[in-house]
Amino acid sequence: MMQINFWAILLAALVPLITGFIWYNPRLFGKIWMQESGLSEDKMKGQMVGVFVFSVILSLLMAFFLQFVSIHQFGALGMIGGDEMNANQSYYDFMKDYGKAYRSFGHGALHSFMTGFLFVFPIVAINAMFERKSWKYTMITAGYWTVTITIMGGIICGWYAADGFHWVTPK
């Protein structure tokens, strides 16, 4: 049965906080990002608990989506209309033969990197242009999201290989 690995999604949803702590540290890109964003340390002070909680909730949504980007077996499920209960034997045979194919950290990271570079970067760049932000801001922000979702996708796709979880039980 095709199942969602909620533990992998939960772990991946914590990645934006961890990479953000490193990426936006003043010793790396934090000072430049604040300057390019028009922010100050005083403006950044305040209650951050709500920001972090809502960030994790939004990161859960991103992680949930990334499984469809990085795990090809969800495509096979989509080809039968997403109704595995009424699938024919060819679907189960396919999943028996290919249910573990391309399930690695590297494969998930590759697909997520492509998503970051080819989808997230253009979105960030378009917004930054209309907001009249600099290319420094654009590259720091898009770079953060590309690195972050690359790691997230690797975790989501690679977890299967690490824990031996079986997706499909043939009828």
Automatic annotation (TrEMBL):
Source organism of the structure: Chryseobacterium taichungense
Keyword tRNA-binding: no
Classification via InterPro entries: DUF1761
Keywords: Membrane, Transmembrane, Transmembrane helix
KW Nucleotide-binding (keyword) present: no
Positions of transmembrane segments: 6-25, 46-69, 109-130, 142-162
Domain of life: Bacteria
Protein name: DUF1761 domain-containing protein
